[in-house]
Design brief:
Helices cover 59% and strands 0% of the residues. It has two helices and no strands. The longest helix has 15 residues.
């Protein structure tokens, strides 16, 4: 998994607080969450 930049970390934090990522960030956010889940939950 790659580190994310400050702007995208804002997207992640906003989503954790209940927000939705902008359409332009949706695919990258989905990829990030998928990768995060695989690290946190093996066999996810």
């Amino acid at each position: 998994m790659k580190l994310i930049d400050e702007r995208f970390m804002g997207v992640v934090i906003s989503s954790m607080k209940g927000g939705s990522p902008a359409a332009s960030d949706a695919a990258a956010y989905d990829t990030y969450v998928r990768g995060s889940n695989q690290v946190c939950k093996p066999n996810y």
